[in-house]
UniProtKB/TrEMBL annotation:
Residues of the Heparinase II/III-like C-terminal domain: 397-583
One of the record's GO molecular function terms: lyase activity
Protein name as catalogued: Alginate lyase family protein
Domain Heparin-sulfate lyase N-terminal: 74-321
Pfam family of the protein (one): Hepar_II_III_N
Record carries keyword Lyase: yes
Tree of life domain: Bacteria
Cellular component per GO, a single term: periplasmic space
Subcellular location: Periplasm
Length: 651
């Protein structure tokens, strides 16, 4: 390809390659340090690279195992009825292992494999001038040129070809011309369509797409549009910050996995700014710092994030923390992560990003300093995000703490949400006890519908109906108002309260409190009933569950859970599934309490985690209109009003 027409000034390809090499990192020095000090990462990288070299990848739809995807891959094939298969294949994430393995071993087969695949992709996926005028909807469809894939390739994987191979004889002038022609056209298309797709800058896709535009402009300032692209992308990332990062902390979509991804993307932008000598605004840096806290708040004491919405129960709070460190030179979030996640797991996750560190030796030494330490924390244990309508309440900052995340946001922000108004996720005594089910998949199928449904969450339904209509994987029917309207620390108990109107004229209020750092009290107050069936679902991360006269008992080798409820209702034990990663689910049990009511009803649930064979006794009794009492070590009195629940300990 004649690249002269793409440049501000005519220069030879040889000179352009020389200019590019002057901007690349000293990869030989970095790889030598990683090889010497991070042997586990080196072994894992080479193992993964070998699998990728022979064409075996894990992708959505493959069931969590590697599958032969072609050698070279068939870039245009959709398998397993899963669009994500094609999209993620065309992000070339497997190149990262191949390129890092090349830098670590200097075995040319890894680098040559990437060059061959890149040239094959360019030849297979035709990127022509007419694409710029295609209808906007084309760039949302299932093919390699969807806007998001244009962005991800441009910031995440294609630049790694430059970093790892740009200094070598594998990256010839001819390869540079092919590379630049392809990345130029992708960025040109992205610059046009991305702001049209995301005019409010309120989605993680726009953030990644701006990162792709920025990265191209920084690596190739010789391009005629480079200055405009750079300015547009920086402004776009700033807009993303204002539109997406809430003042209370938490990315606007309310999904912890996507939030942690955003901490990576916003942090990577700052790393690029450091490397290429520009700055983001003070407001950007303040919001980024504040939102790093949510990565820790939304982390279960057992070390996996709560998979509310389209989230996975993973350890990527550590990824957010490492970019907080690299952007801000601050170990706070990595230190807090080691309180809840095994330190070696944190160090392993952080080491995966060592290649992006501007000073890999300092990163390694600082990571080592976190070993065998408890990071002291003065952060509050009661968290309320008023924008996301999420409450996160915990007893402390260690792995045995009790913690719950409680959510009620209606109307939703976007269709990454699930039908989970007033659902919650609960952990205690080192055990995930009542869990959000996670994503499982993005496919347009019954699995997706089930995992997003209300009855797969720990919430209340009327007559078995979802809170609002599920239409398709990313489309819901209309929603009425719902909100978390109060979160408070009241001394011996911390409480969160919410309501929603999606069953109007029936109105549901739920109050949920952590009491004496020992147990959970939940009141469901439902008004406007006319001989309606009321179901309360609890999705338990247990397979050993028994119904009991007062509720249900769940047992495991780690810790047990006793569920007490009043009034006594019909108890159903139903199969459940919980998913931590794509396409893989483990068996679980859903407990359903059901009764038929008229007028107003207040339903009490007490969740008591315990260890050992002795089941704690909790005897609930009504003591007046809207009041209950029970004993658990001492006597507790609960009073329910229209919009609140108060708990006292009578002398």
């Amino acid at each position: 390809m004649n690249i002269q027409a793409l440049l501000k000034e005519p220069i030879s390809t040889r000179q352009l390659l020389s200019n590019l090499r002057s901007r690349l990192e000293p990869m030989t020095t970095k790889s030598a340090y990683i090889f010497e000090h991070m042997p586990e990462l080196v072994r894992e990288t080479i193992t993964n690279a070998e699998e990728a070299y022979w064409g075996f990848l894990k992708l959505p739809g493959t069931g969590g195992v590697r599958e032969f995807i072609g050698n070279p891959p068939d870039w245009l094939e959709i398998r397993h009825n899963d669009h994500e298969f094609l999209w993620q294949l065309n992000r070339m994430t497997h190149w990262q292992d191949l390129l890092e393995a090349y830098s670590l071993t200097k075995d040319e087969k890894y680098g040559r494999k990437v060059i061959e695949e890149m040239l094959d992709w360019i030849g297979t996926v035709e990127i022509h001038d007419e694409l710029i005028d295609y209808p906007l909807r084309y760039f949302e469809e299932c093919h390699p040129l969807r806007a998001l894939e244009l962005g991800i390739r441009s910031y995440k994987t294609w630049p790694l070809v430059l970093e790892h191979l740009g200094h070598t004889e594998l990256f010839t002038e001819a390869v540079l011309e092919q590379y630049l022609g392809a990345i130029y056209m992708q960025t040109k298309i992205l610059r046009k369509v991305s702001p049209l797709l995301w005019p409010k800058a309120d989605h993680n896709h726009f953030l990644m797409e701006c990162l792709g535009i920025l990265t191209t402009a920084l690596y190739f300032p010789e391009l005629r549009e480079a200055e405009e692209w750079r300015a547009f992308a920086i402004e776009g990332i700033e807009r993303c910050c204002i539109a997406q990062l809430t003042e209370d902390g938490g990315q606007i979509e309310g999904c912890p996995s996507y939030h942690n991804g955003c901490m990576f993307w916003f942090g990577l932008a700052v790393v690029l700014a450091k490397r290429f000598h520009f700055q983001f605004s003070d407001q950007y840096m303040r919001l980024f710092r504040k939102n790093l806290d949510y990565s820790i708040y939304s982390l279960r004491p057992t070390g996996k994030c709560v998979p509310v919405g389209d989230s996975h129960a993973n350890n990527l709070a550590a990824m957010g923390a490492v970019y907080g460190y690299m952007a801000l030179d601050d170990l706070t979030w990595l230190g807090l992560a080691t309180n809840l996640i095994d330190t070696q797991e944190v160090l392993h996750e952080a080491s995966k990003h060592a290649w992006r560190a501007l000073d890999v030796q300092q990163l390694y030494e600082d990571l080592q300093s976190l070993q065998d330490k408890h990071y002291e924390c003065d952060k509050a244990t009661t968290f309320w995000n008023r924008t996301l309508h999420q409450a996160i309440i915990r007893s402390g900052w260690d792995s045995k703490s009790m913690s719950f995340l409680f959510t009620c946001r209606s109307p939703i922000q976007n269709a990454h949400a699930h039908i989970d108004l007033m659902s919650f996720d609960f952990t205690a005594l080192g055990k995930d006890m009542i869990c959000d089910p996670g994503i499982f998949c993005y496919r347009e199928d019954e699995d997706r519908k089930q995992f997003k449904s209300a009855s797969y969450h720990s919430t209340l339904l009327i007559d078995g109906r979802d809170h609002f209509e599920y239409i398709s994987s990313f489309q819901f029917g209309p929603q009425k108002v719902g909100a978390v309207y109060n979160v408070e620390d009241r001394g011996f108990y911390q409480i969160a309260s919410a309501y929603h109107m999606n069953y109007e004229p029936i109105v549901h209020h739920r109050h949920m409190a952590l009491v004496d750092n020992q147990f959970i009290v939940i009141i469901d107050r439902v008004t406007g009933l006319e001989h309606n069936k009321v179901q309360r679902y609890f999705h338990l991360d247990y397979t050993e569950v028994e119904a009991a006269p007062e509720g249900a008992i769940a047992t495991s080798e780690i810790a047990n859970l006793a569920i007490y409820t009043y009034p006594q209702e019909e108890v159903g034990l139903l199969p459940g599934r919980l998913s931590d990663v794509n396409d893989i689910a483990r068996e679980a049990t859903r407990v359903c309490f059901q009764g038929t009511y008229n007028g107003t009803v207040a339903l009490l649930t007490v969740l008591v985690p315990y260890q050992g064979d002795h089941v704690p006794a909790v005897n609930i009794e009504p003591v007046g209109n809207g009041c209950y009492a029970f004993n658990y070590g001492r006597r507790y009195h609960i009073e329910i009003t229209d919009n609140d629940m108060t708990i006292s300990k009578p002398v």
